[in-house]
Amino acid sequence: MADPLTPSISDRICKHMNEDHAEAIVLYAKAYAGATSATAAEMVSIDAQGMNLMAQVEGAITPLRVEFDHELQDSEDAHQTLIAMVRQARTQPQ
After folding, report:
1. Which Pfam family would be a valid example here (predicted)?
2. Virtual torsion, Cα 57, 62, 68, 71, nearest 10 deg
């Protein structure tokens, strides 16, 4: 089993996603939070049930919540789930 989703693990995941996968976070905002006009987004936190984002939507910074389709068990589950979600989002029309 990988690391449980503690606040420090959440911080690590968010830092990595914000630095290396900013385009994926915008996709999450558009595909899973209904913010289809989002132009930028940042992952603020992640927990077993979902992720909290701050997105630039029509000129305003907007908090968004994306719920997962299952409760995450650990950091490896989070990693695999985030990958699957971005792959799914890329198949949807933008």
Report:
1. DUF2470
2. 160
At residue 11's C-alpha, the angle toward residues 61 and 45, to 5°, is: 40
Q: Is 39 helix (H, G, I), strand (E, B) or coil?
A: strand
> What's the average model confidence in pLDDT over 24-53?
97
Going from N- to C-terminal start, the domains of the chain cover 7-89
Q: Which two tokens stand for residue 6?
A: 């503690």
| CATH architecture of the domain covering 7-89 | Alpha-Beta Barrel (3.20)
Instruction: Give the mean model confidence (pLDDT) for residues 23-33.
Output: 97
Sequence-ordered list of residues with C-beta below 8 angstroms from that of 21, at least 6 positions apart, any chain: 86
| Cα–Cα distance list, 31 to 27, 34, 75 (Å) | 6, 6, 22
In whole angstroms, give the CA distance from residue 55 to residue 53: 6
